[in-house]
Write a sequence for this structure.
């Protein structure tokens, strides 16, 4: 596959097997830069697995096999060192998982430290603050950066995880149902944060979501996955107005 | 409150639990009671002086000070923990992260087996195999070339020494520390591993994050390992050299509290106060053991609170 200019993410002929089970079936899609792709589909359809195939966390799962191509900003994910390609991306997981033994500050600082993004303490402080602001959490935690994260609410923890991912200045941000385990107020904050990211930064977002409303509200593209197959992919406006696939219709109506 | 149906069962178990506690209390009491005459006679000097003057003539002619065995216990346990810690952390990481499943299970069982071997086996192996090898391949060369460094300054006479005891103890506590660390390592949920790797951590950086995630367990393993090393008896008695010696040189023979008791207890009743002195020594071991286990248990609880299911 040749890199095409303008695309942040290109997936072609992607197949994933886990313990012999075919989980992702011949998925192909392209997302231009600075757009949000919403990935939707019923539980167990392979959404999380798709994200893990993009940043190669799939390598962690024993007896998993991947075929096909993934290009992230032109980098062929499966022909590079996994840790190098992961540095292009950030990920926020289905349940908040800040490191429980690190303070709020350290949770955000760890990425830049690992990747040697900063040269001085001041620069690091600046970056931590920037990431927390971008995740819309700064005002709530600025007075207690040294607290452990278990003192935060679930929604705040999830925004902390968003900040942790953002501190790496990723070009591609992978979000696995970031609002799935979060109250509505926090969900709105996270959505706002995502939108402002796209305004201000060179970043592209892949967002797995269960809620059709959320997808329609904030995404530019929608991919609909059913049993590992990509049954529908296109511009959000098009799909929301006239979904071609019967399953998509049902899902958008909340019937699947 | 216990439900009524369970109360009968609970009441039948109560005596057994009570017996255990009572036995332990009795043990502590006997140790303290038997130590008292020695403590009363020698006071603090029992622990701050290095003298061993038994005499059959009478109480006024004897003098004891346990500083040398205390020093030996400290030095050998510290060597053991310092050597065993990196090795057990490394094997846990290797087996959990890199070894293929079959190999992992195989080595896991081997290590568990090692933890259960009778200690006399380690002692004999140490005496017959490890000490000679250590003497000719490690101690002698180090002494010849680096004898200006105090720990290497003395000639390794028989090979039985602080170093030999420390290393043998390391071998003996590795399976145990490995077990403690492995349990904690397996408790860390996958999501934290994924978080670390998603940040672009290399293997080494990932290793460091994992270590920081189980740090309380590592501290616990060290403390519990130290406790084990300090209380190990027969195996140490065979390789430590059994000399009342306080020396910075690791190749010199020494003593530990436990090996002292093992060696001398049978004759102790011929000499006034000697038995009491040994009880005082074991009282120190008991106190240290309780302290270390206490902190260790608190640390393990912290791990369980963080990741417990
Ligand atoms: N580590 C794993 N081991 C075995 N099977 C797995 C593993 N991870 C995922 N699977 C399987 O892959 C399939 C897709 O799972 P995945 O988590 O990607 O679904 P999902 O779309 O994210 O679902 P949800 O909406 O519930 O999060 C499921 O059948 C699941 O059992
Ligand atoms: Mg999922």
């Amino acid at each position: 596959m040749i890199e095409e200019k303008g695309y942040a993410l290109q997936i072609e002929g992607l197949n994933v097997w886990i313990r012999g089970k075919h989980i992702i079936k011949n998925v192909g899609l392209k997302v231009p830069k600075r757009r949000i792709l919403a990935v939707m589909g019923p539980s167990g359809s392979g959404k999380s697995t798709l994200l893990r195939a993009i940043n190669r966390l799939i390598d962690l799962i024993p007896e998993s096999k991947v075929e096909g191509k993934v290009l992230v900003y032109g980098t062929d994910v499966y022909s590079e060192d996994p840790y190098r390609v992961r540095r292009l991306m950030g990920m926020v997981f289905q349940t908040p998982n800040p490191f429980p033994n690190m303070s709020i500050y350290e949770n955000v600082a760890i990425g830049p430290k690992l990747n040697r993004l900063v040269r001085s303490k001041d620069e690091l402080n600046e970056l931590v603050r920037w990431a927390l602001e971008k995740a819309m959490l700064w005002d709530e935690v600025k007075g207690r950066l040294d607290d452990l994260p278990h003192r935060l609410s679930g929604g705040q923890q999830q925004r902390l995880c968003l900040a942790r991912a953002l501190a790496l200045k990723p070009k591609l941000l992978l979000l696995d149902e970031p609002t799935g385990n979060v109250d509505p107020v926090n969900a709105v904050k996270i959505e706002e944060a995502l939108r402002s990211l796209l305004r201000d930064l060179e970043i592209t977002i892949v967002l797995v979501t269960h809620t059709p409303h959320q997808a329609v509200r904030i995404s530019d593209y929608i991919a609909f996955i059913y049993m590992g197959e990509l049954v529908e992919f296109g511009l959000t406006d098009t799909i929301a107005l006239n979904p071609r696939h019967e399953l998509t219709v049902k899902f958008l109506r909340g019937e699947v | 409150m216990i439900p009524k149906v369970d109360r009968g069962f609970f009441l039948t178990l109560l005596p057994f639990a009570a017996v255990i506690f009572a036995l332990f209390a009795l043990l502590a009491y006997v140790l303290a009671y038997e130590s008292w005459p020695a403590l009363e006679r020698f006071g603090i000097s029992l622990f701050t002086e290095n003298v061993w003057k038994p005499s059959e003539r009478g109480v006024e002619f004897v003098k004891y000070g346990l500083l040398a065995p205390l020093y030996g216990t400290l030095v050998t346990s510290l060597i053991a923990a310092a050597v065993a810690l990196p090795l057990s952390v490394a094997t846990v990481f290797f087996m959990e992260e890199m070894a293929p499943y079959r190999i992992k299970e195989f080595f896991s069982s081997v290590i568990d087996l090692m933890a259960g071997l009778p200690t006399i086996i380690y002692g004999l192996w140490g005496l017959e195999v490890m000490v000679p090898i250590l003497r000719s391949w490690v101690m002698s060369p180090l002494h010849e070339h680096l004898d200006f460094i105090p720990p290497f300054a003395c000639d390794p006479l028989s090979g039985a020494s602080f170093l030999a005891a420390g290393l043998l103890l390391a071998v003996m506590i590795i399976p145990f520390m490995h077990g403690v660390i492995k349990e904690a390592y397996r408790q860390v949920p996958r999501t934290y591993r994924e978080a670390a790797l998603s940040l672009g951590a290399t293997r080494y950086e990932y290793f460091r994050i994992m270590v920081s995630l189980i740090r309380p367990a590592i501290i616990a393993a060290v403390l519990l390992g130290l406790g084990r090393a300090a209380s190990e008896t027969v195996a140490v008695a065979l390789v430590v050299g059994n000399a009342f010696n306080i020396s910075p040189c690791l190749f010199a023979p020494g003593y530990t509290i436990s090996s002292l008791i093992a060696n001398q207890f049978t004759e102790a009743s011929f000499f006034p106060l000697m038995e009491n002195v040994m009880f005082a020594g074991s009282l120190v071991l008991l106190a240290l053991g309780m302290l270390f286990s206490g902190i260790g248990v608190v640390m393990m609880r912290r791990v369980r609170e963080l990741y417990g299911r």
Q: What stands out?
A: DSSP finds twelve helices and two strands in chain B.
